[in-house]
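Our platform keeps sequence and structure together, in a single record for each protein. Nothing more is needed to write down the fold, since each code stands for a local backbone conformation. An entry from our holdings is shown next, in its original layout:
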Amino acid sequence: MWSFLLPDARRRRDRALALAGVLRSALLVQNIARNGTQPGELLQICIQSILALECQDSLRALGDIDSLRQSLALLCPLLQRGPGDAREAELLRYSMALTTLGKRLLKNSSATQRVQEGIEQAQRQVVHFSDPTQRSIIAGLAQTYTEAIGTLRPRIIVSGESRFLSDPDDAARIRTLLLSGIRAAVLWRQAGGHLPGAILERRGLCQEAEELLATHPQHSTF
């Protein structure tokens, strides 16, 4: 499951991208839970990252730089100075929990098997519906998260407005986005990432994030 280590997969660039992928999921979860903000195209990108079992490139497995732009920009402040407010502290809490769960998933064969089965079922549904964001696909991925990741610790407690957290569709999107965060966390582990190392190499990770943003400038069409 999600195993595609390459000879150069332990590069710092891959770790920076994967951490940005974790943070992207945390941001989208926070936006839904607090504001009811829908992730739009980013939801499709996150689902596609979950389904990319055989992808041979870390950036393609996560989407593209534009989809990671906000989280890459936030990566440096969080790594260098830590959270500046309650919102950033919450994002850091979600992200650290996702990286821990990614590690524990890799060590739990039954949970890994359940994730694999859920992904394969979603892949078949995508072939049928031609739309990764179809409601039943999101519901199935959310169920996969509940049955596989929900058995692991720590449990992620999502804070927000009850009207969004109790809405079945929003709850399914949140669980699906958390699963995409686990996917990025697994990629980070496969690239040699671990929490003490992230602290020690935070300056290098910050430099990688800045270079990725600089070499992929945002474009606007008028």
